[in-house]
Protein backbone atom coordinates (compact mmCIF):
# COMPACT_ATOMS: atom_id res chain seq x y z
CA UNK A 1 0.00 0.00 0.00
CA UNK A 2 1.47 3.35 -0.95
CA UNK A 3 1.64 6.52 1.07
CA UNK A 4 -1.62 8.45 0.75
CA UNK A 5 -1.49 12.22 1.16
CA UNK A 6 -4.33 14.43 2.36
CA UNK A 7 -5.52 17.15 -0.02
CA UNK A 8 -3.49 19.74 1.91
CA UNK A 9 -0.33 17.62 1.71
CA UNK A 10 -0.90 16.95 -2.00
CA UNK A 11 -1.32 20.70 -2.62
CA UNK A 12 1.95 21.24 -0.79
CA UNK A 13 3.65 18.65 -3.00
CA UNK A 14 2.15 20.32 -6.08
CA UNK A 15 3.78 23.61 -5.11
CA UNK A 16 0.70 25.51 -4.02
CA UNK A 17 2.50 26.65 -0.85
CA UNK A 18 5.79 27.42 -2.57
CA UNK A 19 8.84 25.60 -3.90
CA UNK A 20 10.47 25.16 -0.48
CA UNK A 21 7.55 23.29 1.08
CA UNK A 22 7.15 21.24 -2.11
CA UNK A 23 10.80 20.18 -1.96
CA UNK A 24 10.55 19.30 1.75
CA UNK A 25 7.44 17.14 1.37
CA UNK A 26 8.88 15.46 -1.73
CA UNK A 27 11.87 14.33 0.33
CA UNK A 28 9.60 13.16 3.15
CA UNK A 29 7.33 11.27 0.76
CA UNK A 30 10.34 9.37 -0.59
CA UNK A 31 11.50 8.54 2.95
CA UNK A 32 7.99 7.48 3.93
CA UNK A 33 7.67 5.21 0.91
CA UNK A 34 11.07 3.70 1.71
CA UNK A 35 9.75 2.76 5.15
CA UNK A 36 6.29 1.73 3.86
CA UNK A 37 4.48 4.53 5.70
CA UNK A 38 0.82 4.78 4.78
CA UNK A 39 0.21 8.40 5.73
CA UNK A 40 1.80 11.56 7.05
CA UNK A 41 0.83 12.77 10.49
CA UNK A 42 1.16 16.23 12.08
CA UNK A 43 3.97 17.06 14.49
CA UNK A 44 3.89 19.53 17.35
CA UNK A 45 7.66 19.93 17.85
CA UNK A 46 10.96 19.52 16.03
CA UNK A 47 14.65 19.62 16.80
CA UNK A 48 17.26 19.94 14.05
CA UNK A 49 20.80 18.65 14.57
CA UNK A 50 22.31 21.67 12.93
CA UNK A 51 26.08 21.93 12.84
CA UNK A 52 28.18 24.72 11.45
CA UNK A 53 29.47 22.31 8.83
CA UNK A 54 29.18 22.79 5.11
CA UNK A 55 26.77 19.96 4.19
CA UNK A 56 24.12 20.90 6.77
CA UNK A 57 24.27 24.56 5.95
CA UNK A 58 24.12 23.75 2.22
CA UNK A 59 20.83 21.89 2.72
CA UNK A 60 19.30 24.58 4.93
CA UNK A 61 20.41 27.26 2.46
CA UNK A 62 18.77 25.35 -0.38
CA UNK A 63 15.51 25.30 1.57
CA UNK A 64 15.69 28.99 2.41
CA UNK A 65 16.49 29.91 -1.19
CA UNK A 66 13.44 27.93 -2.29
CA UNK A 67 11.37 30.17 0.00
CA UNK A 68 10.72 27.65 2.79
CA UNK A 69 9.81 28.71 6.31
CA UNK A 70 9.04 26.44 9.24
CA UNK A 71 5.46 25.52 10.08
CA UNK A 72 6.79 24.27 13.44
CA UNK A 73 9.73 26.29 14.75
CA UNK A 74 12.48 23.77 15.60
CA UNK A 75 15.13 24.13 18.26
CA UNK A 76 18.65 23.47 16.99
CA UNK A 77 21.78 21.59 18.02
CA UNK A 78 25.00 23.38 18.94
CA UNK A 79 27.27 24.94 16.37
CA UNK A 80 29.70 27.11 18.25
CA UNK A 81 29.77 30.36 20.20
CA UNK A 82 31.18 32.72 17.59
CA UNK A 83 31.77 35.55 20.07
CA UNK A 84 33.77 33.40 22.49
CA UNK A 85 35.88 31.57 19.91
CA UNK A 86 36.66 34.76 18.01
CA UNK A 87 37.70 36.39 21.29
CA UNK A 88 39.97 33.43 22.00
CA UNK A 89 41.36 33.66 18.46
CA UNK A 90 40.69 29.97 17.79
CA UNK A 91 38.58 30.20 14.62
CA UNK A 92 39.65 31.47 11.22
CA UNK A 93 37.71 33.84 8.99
CA UNK A 94 36.30 31.13 6.75
CA UNK A 95 34.88 29.09 9.64
CA UNK A 96 33.46 32.21 11.27
CA UNK A 97 31.72 33.14 8.03
CA UNK A 98 30.17 29.64 7.88
CA UNK A 99 28.88 29.86 11.47
CA UNK A 100 27.48 33.34 10.79
CA UNK A 101 25.77 32.12 7.64
CA UNK A 102 24.40 29.03 9.41
CA UNK A 103 22.84 31.32 12.01
CA UNK A 104 21.32 33.61 9.39
CA UNK A 105 19.94 30.77 7.27
CA UNK A 106 18.22 29.02 10.20
CA UNK A 107 16.93 32.35 11.46
CA UNK A 108 15.38 33.03 8.05
CA UNK A 109 13.78 29.57 8.12
CA UNK A 110 12.17 30.47 11.46
CA UNK A 111 14.17 28.20 13.80
CA UNK A 112 14.46 28.80 17.52
CA UNK A 113 18.24 29.17 17.85
CA UNK A 114 18.81 27.39 21.15
CA UNK A 115 22.08 25.71 20.05
CA UNK A 116 21.87 22.82 22.47
CA UNK A 117 21.81 19.02 22.21
CA UNK A 118 19.64 18.77 25.35
CA UNK A 119 16.57 20.71 24.14
CA UNK A 120 14.36 18.40 26.24
CA UNK A 121 15.69 20.13 29.39
CA UNK A 122 15.01 23.72 28.30
CA UNK A 123 12.87 25.15 25.56
CA UNK A 124 11.53 22.09 23.76
CA UNK A 125 10.12 19.49 26.15
CA UNK A 126 7.72 17.02 24.53
CA UNK A 127 4.88 15.60 26.59
CA UNK A 128 4.01 11.92 26.84
CA UNK A 129 2.54 10.61 23.58
CA UNK A 130 3.28 13.75 21.55
CA UNK A 131 4.41 13.09 17.95
CA UNK A 132 7.56 15.07 17.22
CA UNK A 133 10.48 15.07 14.81
CA UNK A 134 13.83 15.15 16.58
CA UNK A 135 17.30 14.61 15.19
CA UNK A 136 20.46 14.25 17.38
CA UNK A 137 20.80 10.62 18.44
CA UNK A 138 21.21 11.41 22.16
CA UNK A 139 18.03 13.53 22.09
CA UNK A 140 15.79 11.17 20.10
CA UNK A 141 16.42 8.28 22.47
CA UNK A 142 15.74 10.49 25.53
CA UNK A 143 12.53 11.85 24.07
CA UNK A 144 11.24 8.37 23.18
CA UNK A 145 12.39 6.56 26.29
CA UNK A 146 12.27 9.00 29.19
CA UNK A 147 9.51 11.38 28.07
CA UNK A 148 7.42 8.81 26.20
CA UNK A 149 6.96 11.10 23.20
CA UNK A 150 7.30 9.61 19.71
CA UNK A 151 9.98 10.36 17.18
CA UNK A 152 12.05 8.47 14.68
CA UNK A 153 15.82 8.96 14.69
CA UNK A 154 15.71 11.77 12.16
CA UNK A 155 18.66 13.29 10.33
CA UNK A 156 19.15 17.05 10.46
CA UNK A 157 17.76 17.25 6.91
CA UNK A 158 14.66 15.12 7.52
CA UNK A 159 13.87 16.93 10.79
CA UNK A 160 14.17 20.25 8.98
CA UNK A 161 11.78 18.99 6.29
CA UNK A 162 9.32 18.00 9.04
CA UNK A 163 9.63 21.44 10.64
CA UNK A 164 8.94 23.06 7.25
CA UNK A 165 5.88 20.94 6.36
CA UNK A 166 4.59 20.29 9.88
CA UNK A 167 4.20 16.55 9.12
CA UNK A 168 6.17 13.31 9.30
CA UNK A 169 5.66 9.98 7.54
CA UNK A 170 4.18 7.55 10.03
CA UNK A 171 6.46 4.54 10.52
CA UNK A 172 8.94 3.07 13.03
CA UNK A 173 8.82 4.61 16.48
CA UNK A 174 5.57 6.43 15.78
CA UNK A 175 3.69 3.14 15.76
CA UNK A 176 2.61 1.55 19.03
CA UNK A 177 3.60 -1.97 17.94
CA UNK A 178 7.26 -0.99 17.49
CA UNK A 179 7.59 0.57 20.92
CA UNK A 180 7.49 -2.58 23.03
CA UNK A 181 10.62 -4.13 24.46
CA UNK A 182 12.26 -7.02 22.63
CA UNK A 183 15.39 -7.74 24.71
CA UNK A 184 15.39 -8.27 28.47
CA UNK A 185 18.62 -6.88 29.95
CA UNK A 186 19.29 -7.91 33.54
CA UNK A 187 21.73 -5.48 35.11
CA UNK A 188 23.81 -7.17 37.75
CA UNK A 189 26.13 -4.25 38.44
CA UNK A 190 26.40 -1.18 40.66
CA UNK A 191 25.35 2.04 38.94
CA UNK A 192 26.72 4.74 41.22
CA UNK A 193 27.19 7.65 38.85
CA UNK A 194 26.19 8.80 35.40
CA UNK A 195 29.51 7.43 34.15
CA UNK A 196 28.35 3.94 35.16
CA UNK A 197 25.23 4.53 33.06
CA UNK A 198 27.51 5.54 30.18
CA UNK A 199 29.46 2.28 30.61
CA UNK A 200 26.20 0.36 30.61
CA UNK A 201 25.29 2.08 27.33
CA UNK A 202 28.58 1.00 25.77
CA UNK A 203 27.47 -2.62 26.22
CA UNK A 204 24.90 -2.23 23.47
CA UNK A 205 26.85 -4.58 21.16
CA UNK A 206 26.31 -7.35 23.75
CA UNK A 207 22.63 -6.46 23.92
CA UNK A 208 22.21 -6.40 20.13
CA UNK A 209 19.47 -4.85 17.97
CA UNK A 210 16.00 -4.22 19.33
CA UNK A 211 14.37 -2.35 22.20
CA UNK A 212 16.14 -3.15 25.49
CA UNK A 213 14.21 -3.37 28.73
CA UNK A 214 16.61 -2.96 31.66
CA UNK A 215 15.83 -4.64 34.96
CA UNK A 216 17.84 -4.62 38.18
CA UNK A 217 18.29 -0.84 38.22
CA UNK A 218 16.85 0.60 41.41
CA UNK A 219 14.82 3.78 40.76
CA UNK A 220 16.85 5.60 43.42
CA UNK A 221 20.01 5.08 41.30
CA UNK A 222 18.46 6.82 38.30
CA UNK A 223 19.13 10.49 37.63
CA UNK A 224 18.43 12.73 34.66
CA UNK A 225 22.17 12.79 33.99
CA UNK A 226 22.36 8.98 34.11
CA UNK A 227 19.50 8.65 31.64
CA UNK A 228 21.13 11.15 29.29
CA UNK A 229 24.45 9.28 29.49
CA UNK A 230 22.86 5.88 28.91
CA UNK A 231 21.02 6.96 25.75
CA UNK A 232 23.92 9.00 24.37
CA UNK A 233 26.52 6.25 24.73
CA UNK A 234 24.21 3.50 23.40
CA UNK A 235 24.08 5.59 20.24
CA UNK A 236 27.86 5.85 20.01
CA UNK A 237 28.37 2.09 20.20
CA UNK A 238 25.11 1.22 18.37
CA UNK A 239 21.79 2.58 17.14
CA UNK A 240 19.00 2.69 19.70
CA UNK A 241 15.73 4.57 19.24
CA UNK A 242 14.16 3.54 22.51
CA UNK A 243 14.89 1.77 25.78
CA UNK A 244 12.84 1.04 28.86
CA UNK A 245 13.90 0.75 32.50
CA UNK A 246 11.54 -1.30 34.60
CA UNK A 247 9.75 0.86 37.16
CA UNK A 248 11.40 4.04 35.89
CA UNK A 249 10.52 4.99 32.30
CA UNK A 250 6.86 5.66 31.50
CA UNK A 251 6.16 2.67 29.26
CA UNK A 252 7.65 0.11 31.64
CA UNK A 253 5.62 0.06 34.88
CA UNK A 254 5.83 -3.75 34.71
CA UNK A 255 7.28 -6.39 32.38
CA UNK A 256 3.97 -7.25 30.80
CA UNK A 257 3.41 -3.67 29.67
CA UNK A 258 7.05 -3.16 28.65
CA UNK A 259 6.99 -6.23 26.37
CA UNK A 260 3.41 -5.74 25.17
CA UNK A 261 2.36 -9.04 26.70
CA UNK A 262 4.96 -10.99 24.67
CA UNK A 263 8.05 -12.90 25.71
CA UNK A 264 11.44 -11.21 25.14
CA UNK A 265 13.35 -12.41 22.07
CA UNK A 266 16.56 -12.59 24.10
CA UNK A 267 17.62 -12.37 27.74
CA UNK A 268 21.04 -10.83 28.41
CA UNK A 269 22.86 -10.19 31.68
CA UNK A 270 25.25 -7.29 32.02
CA UNK A 271 27.60 -7.75 34.95
CA UNK A 272 29.99 -5.56 36.88
CA UNK A 273 32.82 -7.25 34.93
CA UNK A 274 31.29 -6.06 31.64
CA UNK A 275 31.20 -2.48 32.90
CA UNK A 276 34.72 -2.71 34.27
CA UNK A 277 36.00 -4.09 30.97
CA UNK A 278 34.85 -0.89 29.21
CA UNK A 279 36.12 1.26 32.08
CA UNK A 280 39.59 -0.25 31.72
CA UNK A 281 39.60 0.07 27.92
CA UNK A 282 38.74 3.77 28.10
CA UNK A 283 41.18 4.74 30.82
CA UNK A 284 44.94 4.17 30.83
CA UNK A 285 46.45 3.56 34.26
CA UNK A 286 48.82 6.42 33.89
CA UNK A 287 49.08 9.54 31.77
CA UNK A 288 52.33 11.48 32.06
CA UNK A 289 50.48 14.68 31.56
CA UNK A 290 47.03 16.04 30.84
CA UNK A 291 46.67 19.18 28.76
CA UNK A 292 42.95 19.83 29.10
CA UNK A 293 39.61 18.47 30.31
CA UNK A 294 36.48 18.44 28.14
CA UNK A 295 33.08 18.05 29.82
CA UNK A 296 29.56 18.50 28.51
CA UNK A 297 28.94 16.04 25.66
CA UNK A 298 25.92 15.92 25.77
CA UNK A 299 25.60 19.42 27.19
CA UNK A 300 26.04 19.50 30.94
CA UNK A 301 23.04 20.05 33.19
CA UNK A 302 23.07 22.77 35.83
CA UNK A 303 23.50 20.08 38.48
CA UNK A 304 26.65 18.75 36.78
CA UNK A 305 28.06 22.27 36.46
CA UNK A 306 27.48 22.96 40.17
CA UNK A 307 29.13 19.66 41.07
CA UNK A 308 32.21 20.55 39.01
CA UNK A 309 32.30 23.96 40.67
CA UNK A 310 32.19 22.46 44.18
CA UNK A 311 35.04 20.12 43.32
CA UNK A 312 37.20 22.83 41.75
CA UNK A 313 36.64 25.15 44.72
CA UNK A 314 38.67 22.64 46.72
CA UNK A 315 41.18 21.77 43.98
CA UNK A 316 41.77 24.44 41.33
CA UNK A 317 42.54 23.24 37.83
CA UNK A 318 46.13 23.35 36.64
CA UNK A 319 45.07 22.86 33.00
CA UNK A 320 42.10 24.30 31.08
CA UNK A 321 38.70 22.75 31.82
CA UNK A 322 36.04 23.32 29.15
CA UNK A 323 32.41 22.78 30.18
CA UNK A 324 29.91 22.75 27.32
CA UNK A 325 26.28 23.56 27.98
CA UNK A 326 23.22 25.34 26.63
CA UNK A 327 22.96 29.13 26.65
CA UNK A 328 20.00 28.78 29.05
CA UNK A 329 22.04 26.77 31.57
CA UNK A 330 25.04 29.08 31.10
CA UNK A 331 22.79 32.05 31.90
CA UNK A 332 21.60 30.34 35.08
CA UNK A 333 25.20 29.65 36.09
CA UNK A 334 26.05 33.30 35.40
CA UNK A 335 23.16 34.67 37.47
CA UNK A 336 24.03 32.40 40.39
CA UNK A 337 27.72 33.24 40.36
CA UNK A 338 28.75 29.72 39.35
CA UNK A 339 30.45 30.86 36.10
CA UNK A 340 32.65 33.36 37.95
CA UNK A 341 33.55 30.78 40.56
CA UNK A 342 34.48 28.25 37.87
CA UNK A 343 36.61 30.81 36.03
CA UNK A 344 38.42 31.66 39.25
CA UNK A 345 39.35 27.98 39.54
CA UNK A 346 40.45 27.37 35.97
CA UNK A 347 37.27 26.20 34.22
CA UNK A 348 35.27 27.91 31.52
CA UNK A 349 31.62 27.45 30.61
CA UNK A 350 31.20 27.29 26.84
CA UNK A 351 27.64 27.87 25.59
CA UNK A 352 26.13 26.83 22.25
CA UNK A 353 29.09 24.67 21.20
CA UNK A 354 29.66 21.07 20.13
CA UNK A 355 32.84 19.03 20.64
CA UNK A 356 32.56 18.07 16.97
CA UNK A 357 33.29 21.60 15.69
CA UNK A 358 36.85 21.04 14.48
CA UNK A 359 37.09 24.74 13.63
CA UNK A 360 37.04 25.62 17.37
CA UNK A 361 39.08 22.80 18.78
CA UNK A 362 41.93 22.68 16.25
CA UNK A 363 44.27 24.10 18.91
CA UNK A 364 43.86 20.83 20.87
CA UNK A 365 45.12 18.58 18.06
CA UNK A 366 48.02 16.44 19.27
CA UNK A 367 47.36 17.33 22.92
CA UNK A 368 46.27 14.88 25.61
CA UNK A 369 42.86 15.46 27.15
CA UNK A 370 40.43 13.67 29.41
CA UNK A 371 36.66 13.59 29.24
CA UNK A 372 33.79 11.86 31.01
CA UNK A 373 32.07 11.14 27.68
CA UNK A 374 32.96 8.26 25.33
CA UNK A 375 30.96 10.14 22.69
CA UNK A 376 33.21 13.17 23.07
CA UNK A 377 36.34 11.02 22.70
CA UNK A 378 34.90 9.36 19.61
CA UNK A 379 34.16 12.63 17.82
CA UNK A 380 37.30 14.52 18.80
CA UNK A 381 39.59 11.62 17.88
CA UNK A 382 38.21 11.93 14.34
CA UNK A 383 40.07 15.21 13.93
CA UNK A 384 43.20 14.30 15.85
CA UNK A 385 42.46 15.16 19.50
CA UNK A 386 43.40 12.39 21.98
CA UNK A 387 41.15 11.82 24.96
CA UNK A 388 41.18 9.31 27.79
CA UNK A 389 37.75 8.71 29.30
CA UNK A 390 36.84 8.39 32.98
CA UNK A 391 34.23 9.65 35.43
CA UNK A 392 33.89 13.41 35.93
CA UNK A 393 35.47 13.47 39.39
CA UNK A 394 38.58 11.70 38.10
CA UNK A 395 38.69 14.11 35.15
CA UNK A 396 38.75 17.00 37.60
CA UNK A 397 41.38 15.31 39.76
CA UNK A 398 43.57 15.12 36.68
CA UNK A 399 42.76 18.74 35.92
CA UNK A 400 44.04 19.72 39.36
CA UNK A 401 47.24 17.68 39.05
CA UNK A 402 47.86 18.23 35.35
CA UNK A 403 48.53 14.52 35.11
CA UNK A 404 46.78 11.22 35.77
CA UNK A 405 47.83 8.44 38.07
CA UNK A 406 46.09 5.46 39.57
FE1 LIG B 1 26.15 17.41 21.94
FE2 LIG B 1 27.99 17.62 20.10
FE3 LIG B 1 28.24 15.85 21.99
S1 LIG B 1 25.81 17.73 19.79
S2 LIG B 1 26.13 15.22 22.34
S3 LIG B 1 28.24 18.09 22.28
S4 LIG B 1 28.81 15.53 19.87
How would you describe what is shown here?
The N and C termini lie far apart (61 Å). This protein has 18 helices and 16 strands. By secondary structure, the protein is of the alpha/beta class. The strands form five sheets. A five-stranded parallel sheet has the order 13-12-11-14-15, with helices on both faces. A four-stranded parallel sheet has the order 8-7-6-9. It has a three-stranded parallel sheet with strand order 3-2-4. The protein has helices at 7-13, 19-34, 54-65, 82-87, 93-109, 137-145, 156-165, 194-201, 204-207, 224-237, 255-258, 272-282, 302-314, 327-335, 338-344, 358-361, 374-381, 392-401; strands at 40-42, 45-48, 75-76, 132-134, 167-169, 183-188, 212-215, 244-245, 266-271, 286-287, 292-295, 321-325, 347-351, 368-371, 386-389, 404-405. Helix content is 42%, strand content 15%. The structure holds FE3-S4 cluster. Residues 77-78, 117, 138, 232, 297-299, 324, 354-356, 375, 379 line the site of FE3-S4 cluster.
Question: What would you say about this model in short?
Answer:
This protein is α/β, with parallel strands linked by helices. It has 18 helices and 16 strands. It has helices at 7-13, 19-34, 54-65, 82-87, 93-109, 137-145, 156-165, 194-201, 204-207, 224-237, 255-258, 272-282, 302-314, 327-335, 338-344, 358-361, 374-381, 392-401; strands spanning 40-42, 45-48, 75-76, 132-134, 167-169, 183-188, 212-215, 244-245, 266-271, 286-287, 292-295, 321-325, 347-351, 368-371, 386-389, 404-405.
Keywords:
binds FE3-S4 cluster, 406 residues, four-stranded parallel sheet, alpha/beta, single chain, 15% strand
Amino acid sequence: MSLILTQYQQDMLDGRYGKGKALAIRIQKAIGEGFRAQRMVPITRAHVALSAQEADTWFARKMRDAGATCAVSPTVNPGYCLKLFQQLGYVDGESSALMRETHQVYQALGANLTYSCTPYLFGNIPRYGEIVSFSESSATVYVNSVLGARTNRESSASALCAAITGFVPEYGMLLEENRFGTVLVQVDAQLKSEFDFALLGLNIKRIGRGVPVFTGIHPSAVTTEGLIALGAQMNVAGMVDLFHILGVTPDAPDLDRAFGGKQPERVITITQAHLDEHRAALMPHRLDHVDFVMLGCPHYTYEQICRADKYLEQNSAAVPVWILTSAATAALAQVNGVSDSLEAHGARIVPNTCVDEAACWGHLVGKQGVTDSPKCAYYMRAFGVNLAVCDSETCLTWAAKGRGEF
